[in-house]
Structures are given as structure tokens and as C-alpha cells.
User: What shape does this take?
Amino acid sequence: MPDTLKIEQRSQGVVHHDYGRGLGDLMLETGKALIRNPETRHHLLGTYAAFTDAIPPRSRPHSDLEKTVRFHDRSMPITLASPIMLAAGGNKFAEHLPAFSSLGFGAVTVGSATSGARDGNPFRPRMRMLPRDRSMSNSMGLNNPGIETIATEVDKALGASHRRKLALGISVADTPGVEDADAKIADVLATFRRAYRAADYIELNVSCPNTGENRMDTQEAFLTDLLREIMEARKSLAPKKAVLVKISPDLSARALDANLQIISDAGVTGLVLFNTFPGDKARYLRMATPEADILPVTSAGAKGGLSGRILYKNTLPAVQYIRRQLPKLAIFACGGVDHGAKVLDLLDAGADAVQCYTVLAYRWNAVRKMNRELLDSMRARGIQSLDGYGPSA
Ligand SMILES: Cc1cc2nc3c(=O)[nH]c(=O)nc-3n(C[C@H](O)[C@H](O)[C@H](O)COP(=O)(O)O)c2cc1C
Assistant: This one.
């Protein structure tokens, strides 16, 4: 279990750079009042990206934000027009991928993908806004069109995306309901192999709190076996691409250290820190939102995942801690990033790149604004360019 005191203690000194609200944000609020279902709005994100991309002049991140992430294990580097990536879940269907560069992103992690298509959890609503915390609760349950469709779309989009310095990753997840350990490993391996052929980098989602199943990052023996098989499979695949494991932010200090040991022993390229925070444990985050407003996922009452601003106080100190423990692992920091100055704070803490998703529901043109804030923070500190800045330099 997470330790409240630890989250409170660790988060001392974390700065929540705040942002003002302009006309665009008012328009966003009006849009939310008109389209009340957050899931419908979430489906419109790709269309919005395509629309933005179609209207000249196409905006691109400032060239000083460009960053090539080089990996210690000599995986293929990825070149990002901005260090801000769209986190998994923001584009589950691999739609309009190159257009996301016009929103300001330097990469998109597509998925999570499972071996076959899935509708996700059967109940509605599956997403709820928690505006008092600028956060969100979701219980989507890994809805996606399956790895074959996702990988085919990524294949098609790769050339146009690379011309815009937009890297494309695929997040790979296990199929809920596969009980037998060997069958589960075979299932993830098959998805991994197909994803690997298409994407620039792979994320292994071992921490989904939304399916009602035991998460893989809480089953240490299984995780050890799974990562051994995945990394063994990578040896026979060329070129060598980065494989990052995405873990949950609620691991206890002991479980986190155990996961780090397993991950570094397996020779994994890096970590994505973190997935959503299990809603069952919302009290540890001391949210303004009452716990009763967090969605249940199963009839047994298990709750989905929390995302957004409330997570940041855990994300930053965790990146600092893990960078100290494992200086050679790549880190994509994720959880509550909603301001460009936070991006620089995370890069300073040791992140190689930063991911976000929930901020798109609270800030109009969020990533373009965050890119500008990042550039302003760099200029204020005399940093000329991000290439060559940070741990991957
Ligand atoms: C609606 C929704 C769906 C998500 N789906 C996935 C997913 O399929 N795979 C995954 O690894 N993470 C998923 N996530 C988690 C995000 O990638 C990210 O880790 C989390 O939202 C924290 O970042 P944020 O605070 O910037 O949103 C999802 C998040 C949301 C809000």
C-alpha cells in the first residue's frame, strides 16, 4: 500500500506552476457543456487534430525544443520535435497520427493494444471529469481495435510522422481474462512482436487498473518471466528498438524497488512513470473530489484509474528517486503534467521525455501552450536548446 506520509513528504518542494485561463479555455468549457459525455469528447481528439492540421499555417514546435533521445542500451534513437509525448490512451485507434504534430506533440504512444479487438468495460459512463482536482477518473478497460489494425495504421503513418519529427510508439497490454501464465506470456509476446515491427518504441503496459484483473506489476514472479521472454524475443528482432515498462504510481517503496530490480535485471531500455493511480486508493492523494465520485469498475466495487494534476506531486519525486537508483534507464515521465515549466522540472529531474493526456481536457491548445511555456522557462534559465540537454545527452 502507498504510504500517505511518504507521498506528503516526498511532494514537499514540488511546484505546481499554474496557468491562467484565456478565451480558448472559455470555448473549451462551452464545448464541454455542449458535448457532455467525456468519452465522446475523447473520441473527437483525432478529428480535432486533423482539423488543426488542415488549417494553414501549420504550427510546429520551435526548433530549440527538438530532442533526440538516445538510449544507453543502444536502441534506435528517437527524434522528437518536442519532448512532450501523447500518453497511451489518448489515441487508442491509431487515427490521424501525423496530425498530432500540429497539436505540438513530439511523439504519440498508440494503444494500449491487445492481441484482439476489445470493447472495454461494458458499463457507461467510463470517464468522469473531476474538475476540482483538474483530474479525471476512467474505467475504459483497454478498448482498442487489436494489434493488427493498430500496427497497420502505424506502418502507414510512420513516413509522414517522421518528416514532422513525430515518433510513434505502441503500448502493448495483456488480454484480460487469459488466466494461465504461459498462455498470458504467449498472448503478450504475439502482440509485442507485431507492435515491434511497426513502431519506433514499445511500451509494455503492466499496470492497467481498469480491467478488474491483478496487475502484472504486482506479480513479481510473473513479471520476471514475462520480461525475460520479451527481452529474449527482442534479441532476434532488428533493428534494436527501445522497450519501456509502464508501472503504477501506487507501488509501495518495497514493491517499487522490487520492480526496479526485475526491470533492470531483464535489460529493459526504460520506464514510463506512471500509469493512472488506482481509484480505490484515492484517499492517499488527498483529493478535493469526494471518493464517492470515483467510478467503480467491477460489481465488486473496484475502481478505475485517476489521472491529471493530482498525480504530479508523486511523479516528480519518483522520477528524481528512480534516476538516482538507475542512472542508465530511460525515463518517460507521465502523470499530471499540465504546464511547460513542469516539463523542464521533469527533464531536470532526469526524465528523457514527458507524456501527458488529461491536460487536453482542461486547457485549450494545451500542448502548444506548454511548448511555449517550456521555451520561456528555458530562455529564463539560459538554456539554448533541448538537444543535448538532460540524461540522454
Ligand atoms: C481515458 C484514459 C485512457 C487511458 N488508457 C490507457 C491505456 O490504454 N494504456 C496505458 O498505458 N495508459 C492509459 N492511460 C493512462 C495515461 O497514459 C497516463 O499514464 C495517465 O493518464 C497519467 O497521465 P496524465 O495525468 O497526463 O493523464 C489512460 C488514461 C486515460 C485518462
User: Anything to note?
Assistant: The first strand starts at residue 67 and ends at 69. The first helix runs from residue 4 to 10. The mean pLDDT is 92.
